[in-house]
Inverse folding.
């Protein structure tokens, strides 16, 4: 009786979601296969052998720039157009970057002089950023340099 | 030279590919096939197969080779498309087969991406300029492709102005496109060139000769008097000096340089220095 009723149910009905729970595994598989077949028939594909992409070892390049190290195309000589002359140096320097780097930069101010100068600056700038209360601690010496006078605040023992 | 051409013609008639290494600095002809060093090794010196080897050996280690102007890749074969001398540059660093190209003489310019050229503005239409660069088709130049240009602030470019710019799009299927700024948005000398001065045309080979890093002509010219030159890779040269006479002398020297020997040139320069 039960088996007869099962056969009566149409396939479309069995495919519905709420019907899936009650189905046994065999009918489930059958339905799934049929579904795949339908999708497979609808799916189009090109009937061609698989493309094998070969990696090319020859690279095409139509520019002479890469072949010959050509200079920058704008030039100016003997100060006719100072702007272009500056640009020439800059653009053509790219080729000779290593040569330029080798040159050691000439120093205007020696390190020692720099240190001496900054030594006095510490006080001047320090005063600028100090709070009003601390400003009294800075004092100018005979050279006009500002220096911090350390006066540590501490408790004084009260006299009896 | 004639001898080299004869050899080239002979090999072409024979229909067999020559090894690129053996024809360096020799004349090659369009249609000829070249073999890269790896390919010739595989073929062997007296190999029965006269045909060039196609890449079917699979796991053979190969180096990357750049083929420059005048050469074309066709599958794994290297074909010559221009007539001239075959040149080779060793790779700058690391591995690689370097660069091969054909040093040819021609007058017709074919736009190439990245080339700096001198163009003449021929039309203003909407938001682009049409620029004649000597190619088969005028190049387009957007009004926004200038330094400091915005939709509100248009560059002052009139029809007939000379433009020094760079190609960003240049291929055989599309209209070439120029810009007057680099990738950072700076002009770097590109844009409208001054309104006076003299523009003339020379062969493309001469431009490359003059722009070579160790070109004696330019060094000698620079010593003459204050002057300014702009070289376009499309064969156009723009010159300007203090007087019209000086400008004309300069133009004539540069034009004549192509067919002068070093001695002849030195004579002329010494004569100029006296006057």
């Amino acid at each position: 009786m039960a088996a007869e009723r099962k056969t009566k149910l149409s396939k479309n009905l069995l495919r519905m979601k709420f019907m899936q729970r009650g189905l046994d595994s065999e009918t489930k598989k059958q339905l799934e296969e049929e579904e795949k077949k339908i999708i497979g028939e609808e799916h189009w594909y090109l009937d061609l052998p698989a493309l094998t992409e070969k990696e090319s070892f020859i690279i095409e390049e139509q520019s002479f720039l890469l072949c010959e190290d050509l200079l920058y195309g704008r030039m100016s000589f003997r100060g006719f157009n100072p702007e272009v002359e500056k640009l020439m140096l800059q653009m053509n320097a790219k080729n000779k970057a290593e040569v330029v780097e080798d040159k050691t930069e000439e120093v205007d101010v020696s390190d020692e002089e720099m240190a001496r100068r900054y030594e006095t600056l510490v006080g001047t700038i320090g005063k600028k950023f100090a709070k009003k209360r601390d400003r009294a601690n800075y004092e100018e010496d005979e050279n006009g340099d500002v220096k911090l006078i350390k006066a540590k605040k501490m408790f004084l023992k009260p006299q009896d | 030279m004639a001898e080299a051409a004869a050899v080239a013609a002979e090999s072409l008639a024979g229909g067999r590919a020559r090894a690129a290494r053996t024809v360096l600095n020799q004349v090659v002809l369009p249609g000829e096939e070249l073999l890269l060093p790896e390919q010739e090794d595989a073929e062997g010196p007296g190999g029965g197969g006269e045909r060039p080897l196609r890449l079917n050996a699979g796991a053979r280690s190969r180096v990357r080779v750049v083929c420059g102007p005048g050469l074309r890749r066709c599958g794994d074969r290297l074909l010559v498309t221009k007539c001239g001398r075959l040149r080779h540059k060793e790779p700058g660093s690391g591995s690689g087969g370097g660069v091969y190209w054909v040093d040819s003489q021609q007058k017709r310019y074919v736009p190439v991406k990245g080339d700096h050229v001198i163009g003449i503005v021929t039309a203003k239409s909407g938001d682009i300029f049409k620029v004649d660069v000597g190619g088969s088709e005028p190049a387009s130049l957007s009004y926004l492709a200038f330094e400091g240009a915005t939709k509100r602030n248009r560059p002052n470019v009139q029809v007939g102005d000379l433009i020094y710019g760079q190609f960003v799009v240049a291929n055989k299927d599309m209209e070439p496109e120029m810009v007057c700024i680099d990738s950072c948005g700076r002009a770097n000398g590109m844009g409208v060139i001054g309104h006076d001065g003299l523009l003339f045309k020379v062969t493309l080979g001469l431009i490359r000769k003059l722009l070579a890093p160790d070109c004696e002509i330019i060094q000698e010219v620079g010593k003459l008097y204050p002057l300014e030159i702009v070289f376009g890779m499309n064969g156009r040269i723009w010159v300007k000096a203090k007087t019209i006479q000086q400008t004309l002398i300069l133009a004539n020297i540069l034009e004549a340089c192509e067919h002068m020997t070093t001695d002849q040139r030195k004579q002329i320069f010494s004569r100029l220095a006296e006057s």
